[in-house]
């Protein structure tokens, strides 16, 4: 095709032998057998552009989701203890409670989830985070450690992510966060990647998009005989980051 748009023409000639008879050039076609002409035209290409905006939705819940787009979510405020009307933490057991998250994003190269604690000591505190009477398990070690009933400690474990029914995608929990009970972790020591770091600790990630992918973070705690009486709390932020 020519480089400009508009009509152009082609000529076709046939010859009786492979040496093209007496053909010498386009203006001296020689003794051809048949001939014909073709009219053609080129046009400017049809160009279509579409834009898809970036999106990311992340929610947390104290109840398992009942559907897509965070359906069935409940406020992520939970107690950890022995249940019943008092629901207290004591020395007789390691008590657990789950928190659920769900993420949807069209991020081109996937996403990551980060967990950030408000208490600088990483554990449960009765004085607003100044001290942690129920400390991060194993002093906030970067490795999972067994929590033993009666030895005050607080930790968590994170599940791999699976899609809600009707959704798509998965994610993988970061290896050190994917422990198995009675082993838990509450990392406060890994450089630039722990729960007290400005941006938290990466707990799960994926290299693909997600439509309502669920993770479960299971928190575990126990008290000791000398744990001071009081109400202990910790506030966590769950941060979703898309890789666009």
Features:
244 residues, rod-shaped, 13 strands, mainly beta, nine-stranded antiparallel sheet, two-stranded antiparallel ribbon
Structural account:
This protein is mostly beta strands. Helices cover 0% and strands 37% of the residues. The chain is built from no helices and 13 strands. The chain starts with 5 loop residues before the first strand and ends with a strand.
List the topology elements.
Elements: E1 6-14, E2 34-42, E3 56-61, E4 95-105, E5 111-117, E6 145-146, E7 153-158, E8 161-168, E9 170-173, E10 183-184, E11 201-206, E12 210-222, E13 236-242
Antiparallel strand pairs: 1-2, 3-4, 4-12, 5-11, 5-13, 6-10, 7-12, 8-9, 8-12, 9-11
In short:
The protein is mostly beta strands and 244 residues long. The protein is built from no helices and 13 strands.
The counted number of beta strands is 13
Low-confidence stretches: none
- Termini, distance in Å? 39 Å
Average pLDDT confidence is 95
Helix % is under 10%
CA-atom Rg in angstroms? 33 Å
Spatial shape = rod-shaped
Question: How many H/I helical runs?
Answer: 0
Helix/sheet category: mainly beta
């Amino acid at each position: 095709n020519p480089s400009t748009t508009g009509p152009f023409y082609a000529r076709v000639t046939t010859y009786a032998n492979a040496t093209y008879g007496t053909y010498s050039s386009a203006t001296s076609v020689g003794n051809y057998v048949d001939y014909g002409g073709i009219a053609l035209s080129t046009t400017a290409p049809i160009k279509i552009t579409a834009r898809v905006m970036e999106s990311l939705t992340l929610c947390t819940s104290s109840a398992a989701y009942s559907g897509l787009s965070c359906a069935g979510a409940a406020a992520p405020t939970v107690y950890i203890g022995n249940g019943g009307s008092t629901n207290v933490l004591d020395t007789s057991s390691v008590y657990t409670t789950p928190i659920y998250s769900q993420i949807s994003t069209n991020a081109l190269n996937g996403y990551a989830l980060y967990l950030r604690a408000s208490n600088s000591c990483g554990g449960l505190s009765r004085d607003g985070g100044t001290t942690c009477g129920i400390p991060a398990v194993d002093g906030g070690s970067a490795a999972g450690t067994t929590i033993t009933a009666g030895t005050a400690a607080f930790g968590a474990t994170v599940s791999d992510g699976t899609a809600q029914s009707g959704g798509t995608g998965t994610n993988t929990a970061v290896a050190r966060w994917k422990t198995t009970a009675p082993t838990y972790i509450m990392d406060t020591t890994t450089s630039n990647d722990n729960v007290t770091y400005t941006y938290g600790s990466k707990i799960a990630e994926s290299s693909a998009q997600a439509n309502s992918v669920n993770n479960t973070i299971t928190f575990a705690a126990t008290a000791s005989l000398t744990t001071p009486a009081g109400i202990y709390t910790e506030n966590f932020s769950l941060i979703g980051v898309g890789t666009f």
